[in-house]
Amino acid sequence: xxxxxxxxxxxxxxxxxxxxxxxxxxxxxxxxxxxxxxxxxxxxxxxxxxxxxxxxxxxxxxxxxxxxxxxxxxxxxxxxxxxxxxxxxxxxxxxxxxxxxxxxxxxxxxxxxxxxxxxxxxxxxxxxxxxxxxxxxxxxxxxxxxxxxxxxxxxxxxxxxxxxxxxxxxxx
Length: 172
Prior knowledge:
Low-confidence stretches: 1-25
CATH topology: Trefoil (Acidic Fibroblast Growth Factor, subunit A)
Oligomer: single chain
Order of helices and strands: HEEEEEEEEEEEEE
């Protein structure tokens, strides 16, 4: 119960510190939705301290995420913590990190998959399905080129894969 309250406290803090600076037009999904995130068929989790990885095996290490709306964007917080998926810098192919952050670097937009690979509309009601997750036109996801091992795969805040698709499963 304490973890849930901590996560809700983060949501309140993020919403009050960030305000609705991005809230022009589109409304983000509901606050507090618990989701499971997968990219390239593999659920994601936090390894090596604060790094975001897609877990091809060891799926029990995958995190549960709480959707924290902020205007027309969201933050993904590890359930029971104040750690959110963050783009650590503006460089291409930078691995996403998961840590406390209330800046724009942790704001993401969930988009529907567009027709013929085009840009889809921002999501206003989050349901289980397939989406892209982006920040200022940069897509969150795995690389197009990876080794063939079963080792965890890095998730980049600015991937080279413009069609990186996410499976978002709403679990609560």
